[in-house]
Every structure is written in structure tokens, then in C-alpha cells.
């Protein structure tokens, strides 16, 4: 199941600044996880590719999952590997700066119930994440 979210980059914010914001793993984790409780580096280099153990508050309660962030020239790739009580969930996203927009391509994999729940969450929360990231890039 795939989903695309695109948000216009505000005037006065250049693509390089947005990419630098995406490459800041601490900023990405804080933006992707609004209910963040804690996170720790599991492996890798936070300046290129790193895997984190993230504990986050979700509507269904507290959850811990692996988040891998990989910096690429025009953005960042994120990979969530979670094991909610109803099955496994993988959310792979490519965040790119393209023609004045922050574009996120999201692939969701899991059983039917998990995919449906995750898709609703992505549709609801990811535009807010884009807005937060772009506000941080303006600062």
C-alpha cells in the first residue's frame, strides 16, 4: 500500500536548508514521533545512516520500534519496523525535496488490519510532520 504526501516549501526557504533539516536525525525523530518518550542509537552513524530504538506514545498505548534513517543527497529515507500486538508493521518512506516541495512516498506493509490502521495514521499525521519540519527549516 503506497501513499504520497507533498507540501510546498515556504518562500524564502531554500532546498538545501530543508535537506539539512531532514539530515538532522534528532529533528527527524522529534518530528516523526510527536508522542516521543525516548530514543537511543542502536547502530550506525547519525550523520549518514543509523538505526534507533524509539519508544513513542500512540493512541493504543506506549510502543517501542526500530527506526532507521538514511541520509541521501536530496532528502532522507526512513524505515519503521514495529511489532504491534496485532502483527508486524513496516513503514518505508522516501522524503525528497523536489521542485519546491517536500514529497514523501510511503509504503506500508503488514496484515490487512495493521495496514489499514497505519494508512489512517499516515494520512492524519504526516502532513503535520511536513509542516513541523518546514517550520524548523525556516528557523
TrEMBL record:
**Domain of life of the organism encoding this protein:** Eukaryota
Among the Pfam families in the record, one is: DUF7053
- All copies of the DUF7053 domain together span 3-138
**Protein's name according to its UniProt entry:** DUF7053 domain-containing protein
Q: Which organism is it from?
A: Paraconiothyrium brasiliense
Amino acid at each position: 500500500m503506497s501513499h504520497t504526501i507533498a507540501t510546498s516549501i515556504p518562500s524564502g526557504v531554500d532546498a538545501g536548508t530543508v535537506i539539512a533539516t531532514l539530515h538532522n536525525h534528532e529533528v527527524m525523530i522529534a518530528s516523526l514521533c510527536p508522542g516521543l518518550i525516548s530514543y537511543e542509537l542502536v547502530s550506525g552513524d547519525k550523520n549518514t545512516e543509523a538505526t534507533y530504538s524509539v519508544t513513542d506514545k500512540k493512541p493504543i498505548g506506549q510502543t517501542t520500534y526500530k527506526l532507521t534513517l538514511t541520509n541521501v543527497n536530496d532528502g532522507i529515507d526512513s524505515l519503521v519496523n514495529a511489532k504491534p500486538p496485532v502483527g508486524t508493521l513496516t513503514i518505508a518512506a522516501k522524503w525528497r525535496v523536489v521542485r519546491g516541495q517536500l514529497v514523501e512516498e510511503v509504503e506500508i506493509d503488514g496484515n490487512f488490519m495493521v495496514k489499514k490502521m497505519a494508512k489512517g495514521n499516515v494520512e492524519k499525521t504526516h502532513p503535520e510532520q511536513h509542516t513541523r519540519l518546514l517550520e524548523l527549516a525556516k528557523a
